[in-house]
Amino acid sequence: MASSNYVKTRWMGNMAFESNNPSGQTFKIDASPDEGGQGDGLRPKALMLSSLAGCSGLDVAFIIRKMKLEIDSFHIDIHARLTDTQPQTYENVQMEFHFFGSNLNEAKLKRAVTLSVDTYCGVMKMFRSFAEVSVSSKFHHQ
């Protein structure tokens, strides 16, 4: 059964796992040393934040290309807070888009971000079902 909604995650011993992706790529998941692992892989909760950034980032990159906007680069910073109770889940997520360039169209870039986080990004919709999420854009004119 191979589909875009199927992954296989295999225990590698101790606290390490290897997980595949529908792209055919694999990555390692491991706990930190203070949790009994080697700290030699990605952390599951942080992967969720990477998924959020990746989902929205892909949308924004697509919209930038479609709108023919001029930017040199952009990145997404996410700061998240976990609950104090077990099991710990994200309760607050702050997502910041940083755009760099000499000819940034701020209004259109803000529109690209809004389209992603309010319309297209399914991971954002999932996050909003369990966490308070805020999104901002910062512009760095070079």
Automatic annotation (TrEMBL):
SUPFAM superfamilies: OsmC-like. It holds the Pfam family OsmC. This is OsmC family protein. Signal peptide: none annotated. It comes from Robiginitalea aurantiaca. It comes from the Bacteria.
